[in-house]
């Protein structure tokens, strides 16, 4: 990890080592890598590391061409540093115009991307997703602790701060007006482990009672809801409607198929006024227990006596 003494760029933000392994940050990186690879699959381009594989402009140029049809007059493969910088400059200039972002206010630049700056690369890709594929579910509230480095006449000035990469979502933004403090699920996970397990068992019993007519039985609370299939079937059973099999993946194999299923389940619940707007589909797919409990809790609360 570079330190400020190695940076000569004013305003450079360096991610603190403690933030690099944050689960939500890693989830965001995995989602973006998957998005890039699916988008460029037909062009046989495979990305494994965002900062290492996007720095020379090739992938960004292909994404730009894929989403906008813009074909820049640049070398397809730029090996020399000067050629890479020229390609990046033309690509970012075109992207900034399409994204309607002033280059001086953008959180990325040719120098930052080419120097493999992870934070700048993430900011750029998130902006591209929001513009070109807004239906892609990105984890919310992804933030990192950074050191803001500024070169002054008297030396290098540093300041720690929190930098948000994806949209901030707080309780006041919930349509249902549900705050974290009032939400019983947040209070539940402050209790002792055995009490949490008791609640999970009660919900699991409720689920299996309603799945019995379909010949299904859930034994692993933490894993069996992650692909969205049981959730969709349960919602159909409780709400009294049939979800066409063509609308979801009955045997999902890829993560995007699981995300599709879970997102459909959440959309159905939101349409029926269940307060689950704050639940991230990716959290359930990644087997986040509080997120899964929250969704099932509202179904349990409404139908436990029927």
Q: Any chance you could write out the topology, listing elements then pairs?
A:
Elements: E1 12-15, H1 17-20, H2 23-39, H3 50-53, H4 58-68, H5 81-99, H6 110-114, H7 118-132, E2 143-152, E3 155-164, H8 184-188, H9 193-211, H10 229-239, H11 255-271, H12 281-285, H13 289-303
> How much helix, percentage-wise, in residues?
40-55%
Going by helix content, strand content and strand pairing, the class is: mainly alpha
Estimate what percentage of residues fall within beta strands.
5-15%
Rg over CA atoms, rounded to whole Å, is 23 Å
Q: Please provide the count of β strands.
A: 3
Order of helices and strands: EHHHHHHHEEHHHHHH
Q: Mean pLDDT across all residues, rounded?
A: 83
Characterize the main sheet. Answer: 3 strands, antiparallel
Distance between the termini: 57 Å
Strand numbers in spatial order across the main sheet: 1-2-3
Number of helices: 13
Short description:
Helices cover 48% and strands 8% of the residues. With 306 residues, it is mainly alpha-helical.
């Amino acid at each position: 990890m570079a330190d400020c003494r190695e940076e000569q760029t004013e305003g450079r933000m360096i991610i603190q080592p403690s933030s690099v392994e944050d689960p939500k940050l890693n989830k965001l990186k995995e989602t973006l890598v998957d998005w890039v690879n699916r988008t460029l699959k037909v062009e046989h381009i495979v990305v494994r590391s965002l900062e290492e594989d996007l720095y020379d402009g090739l992938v960004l140029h292909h994404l730009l061409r894929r989403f906008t049809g813009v074909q820049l007059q640049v070398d397809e493969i730029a090996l020399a540093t000067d050629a890479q910088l020229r390609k990046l400059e033309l690509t970012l200039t075109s992207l900034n115009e399409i994204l309607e972002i002033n280059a001086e206010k953008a959180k990325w630049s040719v120098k930052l991307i080419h120097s493999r700056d992870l934070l700048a690369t993430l900011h750029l890709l998130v902006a591209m997703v929001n513009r070109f594929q807004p239906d892609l579910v990105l984890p919310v509230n992804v933030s990192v602790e950074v050191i803001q480095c500024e070169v002054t006449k008297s030396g290098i000035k540093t300041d720690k701060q929190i930098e948000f990469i994806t949209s901030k979502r707080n309780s006041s933004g919930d349509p249902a007006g549900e705050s974290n403090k009032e939400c019983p699920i947040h209070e539940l996970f402050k209790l002792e482990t055995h009490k949490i397990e008791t609640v999970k068992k009660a919900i699991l019993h409720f689920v299996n009672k309603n799945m019995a007519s379909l010949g299904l039985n859930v034994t692993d609370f933490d894993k069996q809801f992650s692909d969205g299939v049981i959730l969709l079937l349960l919602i159909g059973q409780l709400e009294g409607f049939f979800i066409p099999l063509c609308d979801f993946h009955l045997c999902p194999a890829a993560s995007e198929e699981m995300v599709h299923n879970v997102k459909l389940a959440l959309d159905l619940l939101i349409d029926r006024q269940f307060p689950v707007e704050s639940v991230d589909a990716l959290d359930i797919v990644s087997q986040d227990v509080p997120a899964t409990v929250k969704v099932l809790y509202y179904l349990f609360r409404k139908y436990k006596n029927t």
